Amino acid sequence: MTSIAELTARVRAFAQERNWEQFHTPKNLAMALAGEVGELLAELQWLTPEQSAAVIRDEEIGPRVRAEIGDVTIYLVRLADVLGIDLVQAAIDKLEDSGRRYTVEAAHGSIAKIRGDHPGGS
Amino acid sequence: MTSIAELTARVRAFAQERNWEQFHTPKNLAMALAGEVGELLAELQWLTPEQSAAVIRDEEIGPRVRAEIGDVTIYLVRLADVLGIDLVQAAIDKLEDSGRRYTVEAAHGSIAKIRGDHPGGS
Amino acid sequence: MTSIAELTARVRAFAQERNWEQFHTPKNLAMALAGEVGELLAELQWLTPEQSAAVIRDEEIGPRVRAEIGDVTIYLVRLADVLGIDLVQAAIDKLEDSGRRYTVEAAHGSIAKIRGDHPGGS
Amino acid sequence: MTSIAELTARVRAFAQERNWEQFHTPKNLAMALAGEVGELLAELQWLTPEQSAAVIRDEEIGPRVRAEIGDVTIYLVRLADVLGIDLVQAAIDKLEDSGRRYTVEAAHGSIAKIRGDHPGGS
Predict the structure, then answer these.
(1) How does pLDDT run across D71-105, given as a tens digit for each residue?
(2) What does the pLDDT read at residue A97?
(3) How many Å apart are CA C116 and CA B52, to the nearest integer?
(4) Model confidence, pTM
(5) So what's the ipTM on this one?
(6) A43 contacts on C by Cβ (under 8 Å)
(7) Taking CB atoms and an 8 Å limit, are A37 and B25 in contact across chains?
(8) Which of B23, B31, B41 faces C34 most closely, judged by CB atoms?
(9) What is residue D108's DSSP assignment?
(10) How far apart are CA C62 and CA B49, in angstroms?
(11) Looking at CA atoms only, how far is residue B38 from chain C in angstroms?
């Protein structure tokens, strides 16, 4: 299994070989990341919750969703590299912070607690 | 260094402990991912390219950007887990596909080739 | 009822009075628009289809959704103004184009036709 | 010049004729809106601020940007219609609220005040 560190190195080499580093500011990469997330949303937007739960087994849409996840991951890894951030550690730090704010007792299955808010998120 | 597999397990446990799996359809998680990317954009939107390149060293904005990267990573990892996708492999497959479409020779430093298009992406 | 032209003039004056025109490039405004759409998604992300259909009558979330729609509209109007585009005419032109591509006969109620695609859209 | 009310009626008829109302929940439409904003970002992501300021005069990208603005407007108008919201009034209400929070004196040309925040926005 490839590690994030190896993937980061491969994406960096991909950009360097094409002399694309000049375009890869954090601002531009964040926009590219958002663009790819937009394509992911477009694949899921008209599906019912049930259809979305089974989407990866759909012969037509499943591979497209997987490809979009790949694109999102590429830009996220590249953005973290350019920023000099360890994205896994950033996630763990945020998860620990969220654990303090959404305790298991208070948050248990409560949509009232999380409507309009971000479980596991900000 | 924590691996993606370990992070995935921790995020899954976080959701299970709070009985939040019922909310974590691919569709809902993609929306949550997009919401976090929107918060990341909001941190960078008024910066010049130069300011954005130095943003992580800004005492005020730097930690917020890192926290947003953490949030984005959490939801991306959770989404891949729910879909049953290896997100690193999905990225590598996409990178290889992009390598065939944007050859080093054709793409070298050319903004004409990439304006409105996605280097390293779709 | 206020027209788009009047709203455009008010948003422009708002920016000019604060000397914010320097920040209002199309690129920056598109990011701001995306950030506000992200906030809108965050309000709706955990809702069932049924809950989302009734969201505007929810005492807590309804006003927040309306406020986010207001923010999205402000940035869209400002972006169109900076670009020198009539956004209503742009919408009509696109709607006519979509009408040719999604004929009533072919598209009638068919999710197969529109899954992953954009009815009334691109 | 077509009004928002007329555009709203045309977009509604477009959806009704195709029996697409079943897909047009606020949640789904917000996702579609975000998907179109993502396409707009993709057009602008690699441009310098100067290139973005002149984008509408670019023979290739200009018409694509205008078409994306059209798509964004279509979904925003449709979402407001489904929610029963007057989007222009929602924008004006928000603008007045922002005027109280960002007074002309305090906000004048100050990037320090607005970095990571939303002038004319939330």
Answers:
(1) 999 999 999 999 999 999 999 999 999 999 988 88
(2) 95
(3) 33
(4) 0.92
(5) 0.91
(6) 116
(7) no
(8) B41
(9) T
(10) 37
(11) 4
Instruction: Tell me which DSSP letter residue A58 carries.
Output: -
Q: How many CB atoms are closer than 10 A to CB D106?
A: 10
Q: What number of other Cβ atoms are within 10 A of residue D6's Cβ?
A: 12
Mean pLDDT of A60-80: 98
One-letter identity of residue B10: R
Q: Which residues of C touch B46 (CB under 8 A)?
A: 23, 28
User: How far apart are alpha carbons C89 and C85 in whole angstroms?
Assistant: 8
Contact B31 C44 (CB under 8 A): yes
Specify whether the CB–CB gap between B119 and A15 falls below 8 A.
yes
Distance from CA of B9 to the nearest CA of D (A): 28
Tokens 């691996």, residue located: B3
C1 shares contact with chain D (CB less than 8 Å): yes
pLDDT tens track for B35-80: 999 999 999 999 999 999 999 999 999 999 999 999 999 999 999 9
The length of chain A in residues reads 122
In chain A, which among 81-100 make CB contacts under 8 A with chain B?
83-95, 97-99
Query: According to the 3-state scheme, what is the secondary structure of B80-120?
Result: HHHHCCCHHHHHHHHHHHHHHHCCHHHHCCCHHHHCCCCCC
Q: How far is C6 from chain A (nearest CA, A)?
A: 30
Cβ atoms of D102 and C15 within 8 Å: the answer is: no
Other C-beta atoms lying within 10 Å of the C-beta of residue A22: 12
Token duo for residue D92: 């004006």
| Cβ contact, residue pair A25, B52, below 8 Å | yes
CA atoms of D88 and B27, how far apart (whole Å)? 29
Establish how many alpha carbons lie within 13 A of residue A14's alpha carbon, considering only the half-sphere containing its beta carbon.
Answer: 27
